[in-house]
Write a structure and sequence with these properties.
Layout: E1 3-10, H1 16-29, E2 35-42, E3 48-50, H2 54-59, E4 68-71, E5 79-83, E6 89-93, E7 96-99, H3 110-118, H4 127-134, H5 136-150, E8 153-154, E9 157-161, H6 168-178, E10 183-187, E11 197-199, H7 202-213, E12 218-223, E13 228-237, E14 240-251, H8 259-263, E15 269-272, H9 280-294, E16 299-307, E17 313-319, H10 329-336, H11 341-359
Parallel strand pairs: 1-2, 1-7, 8-17
Antiparallel strand pairs: 2-3, 4-5, 5-6, 9-12, 10-11, 10-12, 13-14, 13-16, 14-15, 16-17
Helix pairs in contact: 5-9
This protein binds adenosine-5'-diphosphate and magnesium ion.
């Protein structure tokens, strides 16, 4: 008998469109002979809609769906409540959830909390690790405690809170005491490079902080790292010892890997198994698993680093629901390691059930 899997996508984050692209791929990779797929799109306003056709996710017309599909928090129901325009209501049972969401309210532990309340198994990291990994500021604090033993370091940084930015002169002094230009400025909780800028001088620093504050009330100003930009995929957790894929490199067709370079510029290329200085590849693969464990990750995460020409490896950030778009590294890296996307998706779903069994204790 086929079981029901809900794939949730869209959402109220700045990565709404990216999530739709990820969901369309994930749905196309799920084995239809084993699973009934219930696609649930969350609009930018936060409405939960059911959509029948994969095409409607690709072309964006799903937002016109007239059928609402709301996950019930009622643990005794374990279902999605579908409401037709006629007012007819049906309870559709859900066996497992694949959140194909990125960023705020999708990757930050909030929706994972709803899944826990609803008592339904779900793919990926739990509440704590999702919340910590979403917050670059907090991630730094945790990774600092293991960076040495993991054999990597992090970029030097200054953290700024919104109230501090009211006295911009003091903020500039604080940054300039610790870092020299150029610097990178980023919202603590964002993604897909939204709100990330590079500043060459004081003026651009102030502009960049204002811009990052549009995305989050916490902002990081970081040392600029010149090097290869590389990513490593981790899978596992629970009964399965986490394993790292090979390493992939991003060759951004812009000054850095901004939103446009990521999703709109066909000249941005990703390569698997790049030639990296020294033994960087092995350092990265080991560090990726250590960081995954330190942040209490489960199921999947993509761990991103920089590698300097000297061979030095610098941890940049971790993504607990990495992209599954056509250009995304997570599925690409596993494919390069011999795990095709259809199998990867199946393994992730199995893994969701394993965690559920663990939490029954
Ligand atoms: N400290 C840094 N030095 C150099 N480039 C950086 C630095 N931090 C970020 N970048 C560039 O900005 C991009 C986006 O920053 P990142 O920290 O990965 O945030 P996001 O969560 O939005 O992906 C990176 O992919 C990289 O190209
Ligand atoms: Mg990134």
């Amino acid at each position: 008998m086929k079981r029901n899997i809900a794939v949730i996508f869209g959402g109220r984050s700045s990565e709404h469109e990216v999530s739709c692209m990820s969901a369309a791929n994930i749905i196309s990779w799920i084995d239809k002979s084993r699973w009934n797929i219930i696609p649930i799109g969350i609009t930018k306003e936060g409405r939960w809609l059911n959509t029948e056709k994969l095409e409607s996710i690709r072309d964006g017309s799903w937002v016109d769906s007239k059928v609402t599909a709301e996950l019930s928090p009622d643990a005794s129901r374990k279902s999605v409540i579908m409401t037709e325009p006629s007012g007819e209501v049906t309870d559709v049972p859900v066996d497992v959830i694949f959140p194909a969401l990125h960023g705020k309210y999708g990757e930050d532990g909030t929706i994972q909390g709803l899944f826990e309340i609803a008592d339904i198994p779900y793919v990926g990291c739990g509440v704590l690790s999702s919340a910590v990994c979403m917050d670059k500021f907090y991630t730094k604090l945790i990774v600092d405690s293991i960076a040495g033993e993991a054999g990597v370091r992090q970029a030097e940084y200054v953290g700024i809170r919104e109230y501090e930015a009211r006295d911009m002169d003091a903020v500039v002094r604080k940054v300039e005491e610790r870092l020299s230009y150029p610097v990178f400025i980023k919202p603590s909780r964002s993604g897909s490079s939204c709100g990330v800028t590079k500043a060459l001088d004081r003026f651009q620093l102030m502009e960049g902080i204002e811009r990052a504050l549009e995305y989050d009330s916490k902002v990081l100003v970081e040392e600029f790292i010149l090097g290869h930009e590389v990513e490593c995929a981790v899978f596992g957790g629970g009964f399965q010892k986490p394993v790292a894929s090979g390493v992939g490199e991003i060759l951004a067709a812009a000054e850095f890997y901004d939103y446009d370079a990521k999703y709109n510029n066909p000249n941005s290329v990703t390569v698997t198994d790049p030639v990296l200085p020294g033994n960087a590849t092995e350092v990265i693969r080991r560090a990726a698993v250590r960081i995954f464990n330190a942040l209490d990750c489960y199921g999947l995460a993509r761990v991103d680093f920089f590698v300097k020409e000297s061979g030095e490896v610098i941890f940049n950030e971790i993504n607990t629901l990495p992209g599954f778009t056509a250009i995304s590294m997570y599925p690409k890296l596993w494919e390069a390691a011999g795990v095709p996307p259809t199998e990867l998706v199946e393994r992730l779903i199995d893994n969701a059930f394993e965690r559920y069994k663990e939490t029954e204790r």
